[in-house]
Every structure is written in structure tokens, then in C-alpha cells.
Amino acid sequence: MKVNIPVxxxxxxxxxxxxxxxxxxxxxxxxxxxxxxxxxxxxxKVIVGMLSxxxxxRISFADLNDDDEQVETIVYNMFTIEQVxxxxxxxxxxxxxxxxxxxxxxxxxxxxxxxxxxxxxxGIVTTTDILxxxxxxxxx
Length: 140
Known about the structure:
This protein is an alpha+beta fold. It has helices at about 25-35, 55-60, 70-75, 80-85, 100-105, 125-140; strands at about 20, 40-45, 45-50, 85, 110-115, 120-125.
């Protein structure tokens, strides 16, 4: 099994991004529209945080009350993305190996890592990306 492959081979580069001044309502719409669980938060091209769908669920009634969007809007207006996101996320380089990334993800409580080249966000790698890669290796 090839585990010394650079993470740039499996990372997502077609990124959905949020800015710190975006609303949590916008964030939820992006999560649902793109069927994703993690969105990097940027200032320009520099990553300043990560917002997960779980972060949104912690402050909303999204799963319990899908019919009452007004309640969610009120709750979302009480917080900013900066208050809810994980700040100073752990990042990896495009040259980091899949093994290195898998080790980080297996030891931490998060499931996505921003991929940064010279402070510029260039991708994101998730536990799902790692699992897909491993499954592909099993087929070969």
C-alpha cells in the first residue's frame, strides 16, 4: 500500500469557502447545497479557521426543527462565524504524506485538515478522502 504519496494527490481543490463576515445562515446553506461537513474560513487567501456542520448543529435546532427556519435565523443572528469556528486550525502542506495526514486525523477530534502552501490555502483533505484512497488501494 502506497502511504508516502503526497496529500496533494487526494485533497479537494474545488473549495467552498467562508469569510469571517459571512453569516451562519449562509454557512448552513453551503453545507446543505454542497453536501459537505467542513468549510475553511478565510481572510483573503489565508485560513483563519474551520467551520464544521457539527459546529452549526451545536447552536441550532437544525435537526430537531427543520420546519421552523425562523428559530434558526434568530439563533444564527446571535453568533458570528468567528465565535463558532475552530480557530488556528492544524494545517498540512501539499507535500505532507497521506500517512502523516492519516496519523494526525486519527489522533485528533476533527475530520478535516486545510492544506496550505506558504500561508495560502490550496486544498482540504478529509477523513473521507483518506478512506477513499485506502479503498482504492485495496482494489489494486
